[in-house]
Amino acid sequence: xxxxxxxxxxxxxxxxxxxxxxxxxxxxxxxxxxxxxxxxxxxxxxxxxxxxxxxxxxxxxxxxxxxxxxxxxxxxxxxxxxxxxxxxxxxxxxxxxxxxxxxxxxxxxxxxxxxxxxxxxxxxxxxxxxxxxxxxxxxxxxxxxxxxxxxxxx
Length: 154
Ligand code: HEC
Fold this sequence. Notes:
- By secondary structure, the chain is mainly α.
- The protein has helices at 2-24, 29-54, 64-81, 99-102, 104-127, 130-151.
- It has one domain (28-151): Four Helix Bundle (Hemerythrin (Met), subunit A) (Up-down Bundle).
- The protein is built from 6 helices and no strands.
- The radius of gyration is 21 Å and the shape is extended.
- Heme C (HEC) is lined by residues 33, 36-37, 40-41, 43-44, 47, 94-96, 100, 107, 110-111, 114, 140, 143-144, 147-148, 151-152.
């Protein structure tokens, strides 16, 4: 009984220590900024590739659905990538303004709109609905622009 209790307590202490370890390894502002720009670049890259295919500028029709799917997936990563408030911190160049964290609820709504439209686009691409797809790319692009207008410095 006593031995069991000791083992249990030890596990508790170890768990607490590892939590402290995690807290100590907090992400630096520069890395937080670099990471979210990397995520946003993946979003931007997929969007550019998708638009080129939709416009017929390149012959990669089979890649349309995967690009749309990747947009839906990266949209899910985007909100978390901005969670750490880096306002006024770090040396890494950033265009995110303080309003991102000051108006987090609105920012979150913007990301949700992005996810919603990206998911619609992915279903249309999967179904090969080319007419729907063109207008849906516009609807998705509007969610990028709306947020960038509000939450990025020019
Ligand atoms: C809810 C807000 C929001 C949405 C939606 C959003 N973005 Fe962004 N995006 C940002 C912010 C804020 C930054 C600035 C990040 C920084 O500089 O730290 C950014 C930066 C970027 C960058 C520049 C990354 C870099 O390397 O500096 C690209 C490219 C980009 N977004 C593309 C897109 C595309 C394409 C979409 C839509 C499919 C989109 N974003 C949707 C908020 C958003």
